[in-house]
Amino acid sequence: MTSSNQAKKLNFEIKSVMEIARLKLDEDEKNLIEKQLLQIFEHFSEIQRLELKESIDVQGFSFAYTDKDSLMFRKDAVMVSDSSGLIISQFTNNSERFLKVPKSVD
Amino acid sequence: MSANRSLTDTDLSLVEKVEYYLEKIDKNDAKIKAFIEVFPHDALARAKALEQKRQQGKKLGKLFGYVFAIKNNICIKGKRTTCSSKMLENYIATYDASVIKRILEEDAIIIGTTNMDEFACGSDCTYSAFFPTRNPVDHERVPGGSSGGSAAAVAADFCDVALGSDTGGSIRCPAAFCDIYGLKPTYGTVSRFGLVDMAMSLDQIGPFAKNLVDLEKVLRVIAFPDPKDNVCNRTIDYSHTSRPKFAMVKEFLEVVDERIKRRFFDLIEKLKARDFIVDEISIPILKYGISIYYLCMCAELSSALQKFDGFKYGYKADINKDLISSVSDARGKAFGKEIKRRILVGTYITMSENKESWYKRSLIARKLIQKEFMRAFSNYDIVLGPTVPVFPWRIGEIISPIQMYQTDILTVSANLAGIPALSLPMRGLELPAGIQLHANICKEGVLLEAARIIDEVTKN
Fold this sequence. Notes:
The structure holds two protein chains of two kinds. Chain A has helices at residues 3-10, 14-21, 27-44; strands spanning 59-63, 77-81, 87-91. Chain A has three helices and three strands, in the order H-H-H-E-E-E. Chain A is an alpha+beta fold. Chain A is globular. Chain A has two domains: 3-49, no CATH class; 59-94, no CATH class. Chain B has a domain at 3-222: Amidase signature (AS) domain (Amidase signature (AS) enzymes, Alpha-Beta Complex). Helix content of chain B is 40%, strand content 12%. Chain B is built from 16 helices and eleven strands. Chain B has an eleven-stranded mixed beta sheet, sandwiched between helices. In chain B, helix 10 (289-304) packs across helix 13. The longest helix of chain B is centred in the C-terminal third of the chain and has 21 residues, at 359-379. Chain B is globular and about 70 Å long. In chain B, 59% of the residues are buried. Chains A and B meet through helix 2, helix 3 and strand 3 of A and helix 10, helix 11, helix 12, helix 13 and helix 14 of B.
């Protein structure tokens, strides 16, 4: 499959992704990284062939950081947990672009 | 021999010990390049102060006189915390990480900060924005990554012990490649406060050492519940059984270099000859470990790195443009290629139109890995296998991202499952390789005892 067909199949438009990521690349770098990313996604697409019967309820809650100069936490970081309360992921607040951020939970 | 024991046996003073290490660094680190910065004045001043404390008969800390090297993504107040990135090249930490505060309270000495792959994104320590680190065992080869500098510092005898961080194998891989001991503790037992995050649900700080005595000693100090890290509320169980039951995972062994596999099976036979149970088990989903890990990790990494925008920390954006251009430009200039790749992967898969097909699936698959390990640990105490499927490669030998990612295949599952894992030297081969042990959550006691057993087997 050619790169452009593969990109179309994935609906991967590197310029849009760069814009969301706030990441500027020069033309040569963009072309190189785009090719590499398509190879990476080709490899990772095996996950879409996995039979996954499990379901997962993704919840989230926010917490304030403890030190304003901390490189570790940011205000409004969102932690994502499954329905058993196991923390599975943590994000800064831009995750609202794909997760509905719930009200704060202490 | 542990670090403290050698100190008291030879009557070497702390100042002499630090001078010994500084001399070695001065002589050999120009070639190896383990360190970002060395602190000779601070280390000697600290050694003098601790000697006075000893002479005054005051109570000595549990790490009295241990000389540490610290991976440069762990904040030390007043010192550059670069994460080996141009983005933070001149960033000075404004506070001590919780683990740093704790080791200093216990009378440790910090000799310097160590090189790493940029923002911990790499498996060979050649992705540093500044320089690659070389393997002390063979200078033409990589030390492993991303905590390659810390591993190299211990292996080259530049310090007693070191701290690194492990998100997908970044302690265990360099431990294996540098022929030393490295431990990734249970997720939630060692505070990440002050660790510049790569992937919050996977990162853990852990120790490197030249022997298991020092490894455990450091672990017992750095592992404590910390309210500054919301998830650091687990307590390690140090109890153990003298006859652990071992399992080896079939899928791990399918991808390993034949020489490493032969030596591994040779060690298994020796274990069995000592009447230990070693069964083969199968966990098929582990074959997808790399995809599951990298999708989870990139999603979190792309979020974690959003705070580096050219304004708040480190690299300063050109403010003569509009805001978005300033931010995009700064990030484009200050991040390396591997960082940019991973940011773009993470950004793409967390876009609302893509979340179901990539990220959510990887979360579900991750849960399956956790369940499979829990199932294994209901019958066995330890899951073991080689640490890395290949020997340390020559610097520049691995050139494609996918090639590099694949070398993490044996280590990522411990991070995905949140379980502790330890690498110890395999020995008996022409190049370094590691044996990796996994134990159940918070069962570092069982892990360390099993490591002592295997360590003895590898030496005979």
